[in-house]
Amino acid sequence: GENYLRYPILERFLTMLRPDQQQWKFVVRDDEDEQHLRHLLLRYPEFVERKLPLILQPEGDTATPDYPSALEQLAERVRNPFWDDYFVRVLPQMHVIIWGRRRWV
Asked: How many domains does the chain fold into?
């Protein structure tokens, strides 16, 4: 969520690295997370202008036991026209598929 963002660090990476050196991953749990992400992306037009790769992943702790369904729901979310200008992919968190909620594996 918004409380965890460190804008100066994000801005440093956006300006310091070439587009081919960047790939941004965001974990999306719910509508609120998606709204925070949308605000972030609108705040930084570089994501569209430089066609920076975005990877969206469903959050595993609340999504597991039905992680495939959470993955499908996230894939449906990015069909919204908002995402048309972004280079976005939806990918699973492999550790969730392999180990589920187990920690320290």
From this structure: 1
3-state helix, strand, coil in the chain (%, to 5): 55, 15, 30
List b or e across 8-34, with b for residues whose CB sees 16 or more CB atoms inside 10 angstroms: eeeeeebeeeeeeebebeebbbeeebb
pTM, entire model: 0.87
Residue 62 lies in a domain: yes
The 3-state DSSP class for residue 49 equals helix
Q: Which domain holds residue 72?
A: 2-99
Residue 99 confidence (pLDDT):
85
Amino acid at 92: P
Sheet strands (E) in the chain = 24-28, 53-58, 87-90
Give residue 97's pLDDT band: very low, low, confident or very high (50, 70, 90). confident
